[in-house]
Design goal:
Two copies of one chain form a homodimer.
Chain A (H helix, E strand, L loop, with lengths): L3 E6 L3 H12 L1 H8 L3 E7 L14 E2 L2 H6 L5 E4 L5 H12 L3 E4 L2 H18 L3 E2 L10 H8 L5 E7 L2 H13 L3 H11 L7 H4 L2 H15 L9 E2 L7 H9 L2 E11 L4 E11 L11 E8 L3 E8 L3 H20 L28 E11 L4 H11 L4 E6 L6 E8 L2 E2 H12 L4 E10 L6
Parallel strand pairs in A: 1-2, 1-4, 2-3, 4-5, 5-6, 8-10
Antiparallel strand pairs in A: 7-9, 7-11, 9-10, 11-12, 13-15, 13-16, 13-17, 14-15
Helix pairs in contact in A: 1-12, 4-5, 5-10, 7-8, 13-14
Chain lengths: 434, 434
């Protein structure tokens, strides 16, 4: 089947990430989408050293992309309001599907844009506009479609959350952390959009409409920033059992819909109170499913690209649906499943927690550690408490090793005269990202 | 447009929940799906007092539902293997779409069932089969379609997680908590499926295929239960900075795919280590987006029904697509948006954290609390530390009150001679489910 031609407008952080991920994962993405998705044109004023786009036809007039008859899907990544609005409306008028990451555009001009898309029978997809790589638009719009939603609360600005996390963890002042965030590239030179809550209010406006089925109404949002929060407040909150987060809250009440962004105390036992640094999370309370939470990177080049490309795959799946199975049962098209082997457990590598009962005499630990060393198993931690009992519990946490080697070590340890009974073994997973 | 006719087979916990949620949220669900979804037939041996199905034609031969020419979508909620497999294959052969919550069926017979569905051009949807109400199948299959997935790790059996949480929080023994879980209805009379990890392995098998594009291979899963975990292990883990969770892990390595369910130590700082009680969570690590986490109820009547009905809405959206916009832009069809008002901030009710600088003399607190009482604002907590300074910080957490009343109170407090400067006000959200 003929590839789908995508035109990328804007080659900044998200544009270059989208280009790179599409190139790197092209084979897997086409196994999911059922067709190759190729970048056929780029509209950008200048190249971006972060992406090697030298082989792609490039124009510095983005409107050329919206008019190019070869282009099936226009990806709007220029940001801002007026030019982005014109570009998207022109693409729609020319019968092209549109994917955008532009929260300001959707929150402020979404009603007009969706009406044009409906009239022209094209898709306008905007997963990347809210909470970066977290598929929250899809979760609310499709995954929770059974529910009457009570409220949505989100940490949907990574810069603000980074600042509040640093203030709490390190007792630093707001201005001090903001300056560092700007140096690290988390915060813009003009941080108003982030720290005064406007960016979060754009995203919350979109979530509110998705949850409650009302038109987009950004002008009704109440917005309060975090610039007045002091370390005193952070400490008092802690003392009272809370964390301060810059939260967007939209709630359905009998009188109407609440739509508000402001610093908020949240009980520390809530999972969302423990979402730290630049990470985002959205908590949805709905009548059938109860609370569900969605957590991940809310910004960044490839994290946002992940959502842009998910929208591309969705669009291609609709364009290409030759059967009812728009989405393949097992995510990849049936003819494109792979035959990677499942690893036997012996070959799996993890760290281990071992607990054993040792007879309390000198040299036991030396015997055990010798056996581990023979299997090339290195030790991360040992716990051995003083006791007056004859049998002493010994707990060892190891570094990573193959299951087969650990099985041999455990058999050898259990055969020691100085070890009583079986060795308890529980695997350890750090679950750090690769 | 004519309603879509659904036949529900099985009227147990999930069947009755599905019936009830469809009835209760019918109006909202049809605004999302674009058509009314009605239960036209039930196949069940006996009525369930939890659902008033008296007006729905009911048969005790479930195969009648699969053959009924009036039925568009068959919902398989009988559970088990052989009869469920026959029912689903018969429905497919008769050209009906199928929605199922049956993880055992998909994990063990999914390859055969999907092949039949593909050949007959019908949908087989199974969101409810993994992690109950969490839209994790959709997240991986669609939301993360841009990514090469590194690994998936999940707490995907609520019973096991409840037991481990109780062991940790209350120092109780495994057998003791299991007996309580059985009494509460969280665990079956025969708890083998839950505590030995078979149920989790079924779900993990499905997640593995979705993540890596391989056929379902339940027989290759390594499965180890939690019945040997002792309170000693739980305590040592805590001492070492870990939590023990019954985790399903599937990971792509150069040699092949790991597919394993076992008790696992996880660093306590990870969000997933703090998922407690009967809740489920799935953590996905992917190359573009990084780690994302999905949290919610993994079982229960209406939580599972939420996923079943999401699949029904998905199916109806495909059946009814008269345009490219299979899913409405704002989740609800454009003609069915509602005009609920956005509440002005004055009308919004929250609790408040107030911090003020008081001149240290007797009676200040009495003045402040009198003002709060005049606005009917009741106090949850007061913090006032001894100090040798002239100005004493006073922190008050209130119960819920409308913003307008709080604004009046703050103005009055700021006007007091004994209060210096402005009152800092931060809103408090408990974020408990309604």
């Amino acid at each position: 089947m003929k590839p789908v031609n995508v035109g990328i407008c804007g080659l900044g952080t998200v544009g270059s990430g989208t280009f790179n991920v599409l190139a790197r994962n092209q084979e897997e993405i086409s196994r999911r989408a059922g067709r190759v998705i190729q970048v056929a044109q780029i509209g950008a004023r200048r190249p971006n050293p972060a992406a090697d786009t030298s082989e792609i036809p490039t124009t510095n007039d983005i409107f050329e992309v919206a008019r190019n008859p070869e282009i099936d899907i226009v990806v709007e990544l220029i940001g801002g309001y007026d030019t982005a609005r014109e570009l998207v409306l022109e693409a729609i008028a020319n019968g092209k599907h549109v994917v955008t990451a532009n929260k300001a555009l959707i929150a402020e001009h979404g009603n007009e844009i969706f009406e044009a898309a409906q009239a022209n029978n094209v898709i306008v997809a905007y997963e990347a506009s809210v909470a970066g790589g977290i598929p929250i638009v899809k979760a609310i719009r499709e995954g929770l479609a059974a529910n009457s939603i009570n409220w949505v609360a989100g940490i949907i600005n990574g810069t603000g959350n980074f600042i509040l996390t640093e203030m709490r963890d390190k007792g630093r002042a707001f201005e001090d952390v903001l300056a560092e965030a700007q140096a690290l590239g988390y915060a813009e030179a003009d941080p108003t959009f982030d720290v005064e809550g406007i960016d979060a209010a754009h995203k919350l406006t979109i979530l509110s409409s998705l949850a409650f089925g009302v038109p987009l109404q950004f002008s009704k949002a109440y917005t309060e920033g975090i610039s007045k929060v002091t370390t005193d407040d952070v400490n008092y909150a802690e003392e009272l059992g809370y964390r301060i987060k810059h939260l967007g809250v939209t709630r359905r009440t009998e009188e109407g819909i609440e739509l508000r962004v402001h610093p908020t105390l949240i009980p520390e036992k809530r999972l969302i109170a423990n979402v730290d640094g630049v990470m985002n999370a959205v908590l949805v309370d709905a009548d059938a499913v109860g609370p569900t939470l969605y957590y991940g990177a809310g910004a960044g080049s490839e994290a946002t690209a992940s959502a842009v490309i998910a929208d591309l795959v969705d669009t291609v799946r609709v364009m290409t649906a030759d059967s009812s199975n728009r989405v393949p049962h097992l995510a990849f098209h049936p003819s494109r499943l792979s035959d990677l082997p499942m690893l036997p457990m012996d070959e799996v590598e993890t760290a281990y927690y071992l607990r054993m009962q040792a007879i309390d005499h000198p040299g036991v630990l030396a015997e055990v550690t010798r056996i581990l060393a023979e299997q090339s198993i290195s030790i991360d931690a040992i716990v051995q408490h003083d006791t007056t009992e004859e049998l002493v519990p010994v707990v060892i946490v190891t570094h990573k090793v193959k299951e087969a080697a650990m099985n041999r070590a455990i058999s050898a340890i259990e055969a020691l005269d100085s070890i009583h009974g079986e060795v308890t073994r529980i695997r350890v997973e750090a679950l750090d990202a690769q």
